[in-house]
Amino acid sequence: MSDFDAVEKTLFVPMLGRIYASENCRSILYDEKALALKPRLPQDIFMDGRQNQYTLLASAVRSRNMDCLIREFLSKRKDGVVVQLGCGLETTFSRNDNGKSLWYEVDLPEVIEYRRQLIRESERDIYVPCDAFTSVWIKKAREENPDCPIMVVAGGLFHYFGKDKVLSLMRMMQRFGNIEIVFDAVNGCGLAMMKRRYMKKMGHDDAKMYFHVDSAKRLALEIGCGAKVAESGKYFGAIGRKGLKLSTRLSMDISDLLGMLRMIHLVL
To answer: Which whole number is the average pLDDT over 29-51?
Structure first.
């Protein structure tokens, strides 16, 4: 793990959120695989105390939102393929596997190597060690599934890259046809807040953040070639607040009111 750069070291953040929700807020998310992995993770990540309930649940809610969109996609298209960019230690496959679909987990080689130590690759959950911003993974997925719809999932990834790089990636994906993408994004206000408070609090202020989305429709127009918004909803909208700390409930409500965090689903 010492060889990971600043962005790669954030891979434990969503895992901590899923474990916290599974132990304390199961109505939001229950992740059996994450709980099983807990004893095998570096134990110091559970003791630094830099996260609060809101930040932990923000990660868990992202997983819940992604799950809902993935399940909807697979329910409509049984032959659908799911690609997870920047997979890190995500356990999305174990929560959403329909027993039929192929999944591709994409991350840098050093991250995939570490992932393999914890989460076993399978015949339908295929690891692809490469840069998510290259065409290696999409060529592989499309060549092996020439006629299948593909849903690309990118959780907690794009924040760390410039807008031009993200747009180039989406335009590149368009060339391979029949592709949707789901990702989380912050608006300008949310980006400023994350840079000023959240990343410093987490000790990740060296992981620079750049990308934000103030309008999903405007983003689709910038991508061009017929890209359109399938969905762009409130991040915490469907989450029950019962039993949560007052500060957590207020933070969730303010975030949704100002659109600071959002889930975006585009058809490319």
So the answer is: 88
C-alpha closest to that of 60 among 264, 250, 248, 257: 248
AA identity, residue 202: M
CA distance 243 to 213: 31
User: 126-141, pLDDT tens digit by residue?
Assistant: 999 999 999 999 999 9
Q: How far apart are CA 251 and CA 257, in angstroms?
A: 10
Token duo for residue 97: 């596997």
Strand stretches in 92-178, DSSP E:
103-107, 125-129, 150-154
Token pair 């990540």 in the structure block, residue: 45
Helix and strand totals (H; E) in the chain: 11, 7
The answer to whether the beta carbons of residues 102 and 78 sit under 8 Å apart is no
22 touches 34 (CB < 8 A): yes
The SS3 of residue 127 is strand
**DSSP-derived 3-state class of residue 147:** coil
User: What does the block give as tokens for 66?
Assistant: 């992604």
Kindly report the number of other CB atoms within 10 A of residue 69's CB atom: 19
65 has pLDDT over 90: yes
Q: Is the pTM of this model over 0.85?
A: yes
Q: One-letter amino acid identity for 116?
A: R
Residues 135, 151: Cα–Cα separation, whole Å: 15
Query: Cβ-count burial of 229 within 10 angstroms (0-12 exposed, 13-18 middle, 19+ buried)?
Result: middle
49: left (phi over 0), alpha (psi -120 to 50) or beta: left
